[in-house]
Design a protein that fits this description.
By secondary structure, this protein is mainly beta. It has 1 helix and 9 strands, in the order E-E-E-E-E-E-E-E-H-E.
Length: 201
């Protein structure tokens, strides 16, 4: 199921390190990082710390993407642009509705539920385990110049020519068939956003 490499056709970039007190690389998300409406789900963005970015880094972007969502394009859960180069950590919960935990100048783009915040995991019941690629992108520009209402895909396309380094942490989530609410709608949207809960990512 995981033979694909989402970065295989992107420009090569130096590797650096990202860690989290919320989840270990390769481990399952805690309940709080799942979508609101699921047991324990709070749409709480993970704590992130990074180090070792390449020389010349002038800003960072952070994205969380589920490449295994049954959409043909995956599902973007979070995208943050223009994090200053002096910042090397985001606290847990930074990606709330107001972005209150983000550093000055950084901003959140609308995710695939079209809300500008972190939205938690909620794979379709019985679809098997999904990967959640948490990526810190080190960029050679202080501002990527993407409008705040752009999609994460537009951010990724624009960043492609500016990426100096990439730090990756992978979390997982799986919804057993018996916990399904039975809805085919996309259920990653949060209750706070008053959107349907995501059942595709």
């Amino acid at each position: 199921m995981y033979a694909d490499d989402p970065f295989a056709r992107l420009p090569e970039a130096a590797s650096f390190t990202v860690t989290s007190t919320t989840v270990a690389d390769g481990a399952a998300w805690p309940p709080e990082q799942h979508a609101a409406g699921l047991p324990g789900g709070r749409d709480l963005s993970p704590q992130l710390s990074w180090s070792g970015a390449p020389a010349g880094t002038r800003s960072y972007a952070v994205t969380v993407h589920d490449p295994d969502a049954p959409t043909g394009s995956g599902f973007w859960h979070w995208a943050v642009a223009d994090i200053p180069a002096t910042v090397t950590e985001l606290p847990e919960g930074a990606g709330d509705d107001t972005g209150s935990g983000l550093p000055e100048g950084a901003y959140q783009l609308p995710n695939d539920a079209r809300v500008a915040r972190y939205i938690g995991a909620a794979p379709p019941a019985g679809h098997g385990p999904h990967r959640y690629l948490v990526v810190v992108h080190a960029l050679d520009t202080a501002s990527i110049g993407v409008p705040a209402d752009a999609t994460p895909a537009v951010l990724g396309f624009t960043m492609a020519g500016h990426i100096l380094g990439r730090a990756l942490l992978t979390a997982t989530a799986e919804t057993p068939p018996e916990t399904s609410a039975g809805s085919p709608a996309d259920t990653s949207a949060t209750a706070s956003a008053e959107s349907p809960v995501e059942t595709s990512a």
